[in-house]
Amino acid sequence: MPGPVDGSxxxxxxxxxxxxxxxNLLSSRPDRIPHATSLPPISGFEAGGIRDGEWKCAASLTxxxxxxxxxxxxxxxxxxxxxxxxxxxxxxxxxxxxxNARAGRLAAKLxxxxxxxxxxxxxxxxxxxGIVVGALGIxxxxxAYLPLNPQTPVAQANFELDDSGTRAIVTSAASRDFDPHGRxxxxxxxxxxxxxxxxxxxxxxxxxxxxxxxxHLAYIIYTSGSTxxxxxxxxxxxxxxxxxxxxxxxxxLAPTDRMSLLASxxxxxxxxxxxxxxxxxxxxxxxDETTRRDPEALRxxxxxxxxxxxxxxxxxAERLMSLPWPRSTQLRTLLAGGDAxxxxxxxxxxxxxxxxxxxxxxxxxxxxxxxxxxxxADVLPSIGRPIANVAIHILDEQLRPVAxxxxxEICIAGAGVARGYRNQPKLTHAKFVPDPFxxxxxxxxxxxxxxxxxxxxxxxxxxxxxxxxxxxxxxxxELDAIASALDEHPAVKQSVVIARDYxxxxxxxxxxxxxxxxxxxxxxxxxxxxxxxxxxxxxxxxTVFVVLDELPVNANGKIDRNALPEPSxxxxxxxxxxVAPRSATExxxxxxxxxxxxxxxxxxxxxxxxxxxxxxxxxxxxARMRAAFGIELGLRALFESPTVAxxxxxxxxxxxxxxxQTGEAIRPNLIxxx
Length: 674
What we know:
Distance between the termini: 63 Å
Radius of gyration: 26 Å
Strand order of the largest sheet: 11-12-13-14-15
Structural class: alpha/beta
Strand content: 15-25%
Shape: globular
Largest sheet: 5 strands, mixed
Number of strands: 26
């Protein structure tokens, strides 16, 4: 079992930077405090980490892979309509030689405009070959990348660009209407090519490592902030390298492996999906958007493409585990993370499931462990044990170790702890505190705000949040940030936002007190949602708005969240004026939809997604409709026909087609009446 990082290794992987030196990469020293609930840096399942003399940045390792495997497929992108054949010539692919060359040309372009070490370059591209070329090219230039989803609201994107001090933006020609506010803009096509690629030169491979030191910034990812503004997490190259090395060894990653890229670019899981694969010479496979959202289609794609390792956000992973899988599937490992895992894999599943935990501030993954299929277990799956060169402490409010089996705050030390928050020294000081378990006074401990306890077998149990922060479908959300944005609406006097659980599906519910004056506009579901959508990403938009005369308070005068009423038809703002079902088919669709969304009734003109529906709930609705109506209906139908009326019309259309093909007579709504 590998031990803690020693002094010579520290000298290789962590130089001092801004007062934070190489000792930040030390594993914890629990022997300094008696009875510490501290777990070893590597235990049982975990393996890997950085060995002596192994310092190389991710861009250098990818360049080495390109020289070793120049003709091997680096990235392959599927699009809607492409067949499931893994050797489909219509699939858009790029070899390691081409990837390295295009990234080198982008790096040279960035260097020409003055981009260098510690500079930030925004990467505003969808999941594609372009996003991989862009990220690699930015690192080759010695800069750090800031991933931006093209769908991010303009106000939030501009804040992140300004706050990060972005020097340049790498984006697509389709984004020419995006205002860069004076920043340099470089366009890449979907294959990662520059417009003037034929005349561009490359950064020499020997220059890449020379431009980058372990403490330099590799990327910034913004997460939700309690003040209403997101906070940028600065992750160094040494942080990233530890993740890469651990992953390569823990999961036996080889150049012959195929890994999926499912996460959105602004979700830090995309870092985990990309860099271990590229640094190994394995291939990265990207499904189309419809496939990515549909569990059954995704399963088929994973099988057809011969994917061997895949990450899926917890809700999707739970759905994938519930599906039947052929024994012949090449998938050997399904990585889950982003939310608390509520189910265990069936014993018949032909691959192992690994549950992972880690905040963005600790480089994606801090703990990891296999999930057993023991259905007799009456507790949720654990979050495993610390990964290589990382230590976990379970502490009380004074950062003292709690007794074994007692709950406390999960605090993280070691090689994954990021540099801090961009331009927020006070918050960095509050969350990245001196590590009392390490002999080096500069070593830091990250306070996650998560509750956990040490289990008898050495695993860690995740028990929820200490503060008012939640995770929904893999996104970490500060509920107060949403309330702060709501309070800026002229019709809102006061608001609070909570997450309610509907049969295992968390949804955001906003409670508002309206301004009681003639000058204020009326409060409507559409008005509040549109107001929030102007500044917040889609995953932070409440699906339910409840209007109250006043918010309940406790004896201390604080808002009593436990006393907030359940949403009902009497207090919930409706999306549209209620229209009752007009046919047996519409009636049956509403009966299937209402309990799925946790509401009393659904208007036939209500939009599924405006009511809080999302792709995972959509797959459940489609499955129920297939069973109820006996028709073949795909998830795409829900995106194209999101109202009850439109879905019912599609059901009737498909029923008529089926009847015509079988030659059977059919009465209108016959299936629904059955």
